[in-house]
Amino acid sequence: MDLLSRMPFEANASVWGAVLGAARTHKNVDLGQRAARELLVLEPEKSGTHSLLANIYASVGLWEEVADTRRLMKDSKVKKEPGMSWIEVKDRVYTFIVGDRSHSMSEEIFKKLGELMDLIREEGYVPVLENDLHNVTTSEKEVLLLYHSEKLAVAFGLIATPPRAPIRVKKNLRVCIDCHTFLKFVSKVVTREIIVRDINRFHHFRDGNCSCGDYW
């Protein structure tokens, strides 16, 4: 904020977007609200501002504020783009959405997810629930997080590609913090390189680490 006050020009949406992302990382509600106000003026049509602000509120248990933010988003007629992930296998592109059971191999995919969860829990994985926007029980949140589109795509990739072949997935939104943590652990237990291209950057997961240095 000190840098913003000293810049010889007005901060644009990219700058305020970085501030909002940092506020989410550090659970700074006041700063998040300030950045969101600026972004709603600069980019009123973007749903990401509402989503990130709601994530900040959820991370500190402010569920009424989460509901208010979602209501504002609805009243403003801003639509949140549904999360989707794609993976190409043998010259065919497969698309996944959260909880997707339309794939012909859904039973195998969900079974693989269960196996992966057992393996990574033994390595110390704990679901990151604080940014989930659903005001439900912990166990219900864990179930909702397990079926995010990138998890489904990676599980399918592990089934459908040769051993040790890299898994390459593209997502239309930012990878959530739980999926990011999940994929780090998976890359370690299956000894595979997992490459995810989300809306912000490439993530190269290898041996339990990510190329973004956990600042995504």
TrEMBL record:
<dbReference type="GO" id="GO:0008270">
    <property type="term" value="F:zinc ion binding"/>
</dbReference>
<dbReference type="Pfam" id="PF20431">
    <property type="entry name" value="E_motif"/>
</dbReference>
<dbReference type="Pfam" id="PF14432">
    <property type="entry name" value="DYW_deaminase"/>
</dbReference>
<feature type="domain" description="DYW">
    <location>
        <begin position="124"/>
        <end position="216"/>
    </location>
</feature>
<comment type="similarity">
    <text>Belongs to the PPR family. PCMP-H subfamily.</text>
</comment>
<dbReference type="Pfam" id="PF20430">
    <property type="entry name" value="Eplus_motif"/>
</dbReference>
<dbReference type="InterPro" id="IPR046848">
    <property type="entry name" value="E_motif"/>
</dbReference>
<dbReference type="GO" id="GO:0009451">
    <property type="term" value="P:RNA modification"/>
</dbReference>
<dbReference type="InterPro" id="IPR046960">
    <property type="entry name" value="PPR_At4g14850-like_plant"/>
</dbReference>
<dbReference type="InterPro" id="IPR046849">
    <property type="entry name" value="E2_motif"/>
</dbReference>
<protein>
    <recommendedName>
        <fullName>DYW domain-containing protein</fullName>
    </recommendedName>
</protein>
<dbReference type="InterPro" id="IPR032867">
    <property type="entry name" value="DYW_dom"/>
</dbReference>
<dbReference type="GO" id="GO:0003723">
    <property type="term" value="F:RNA binding"/>
</dbReference>
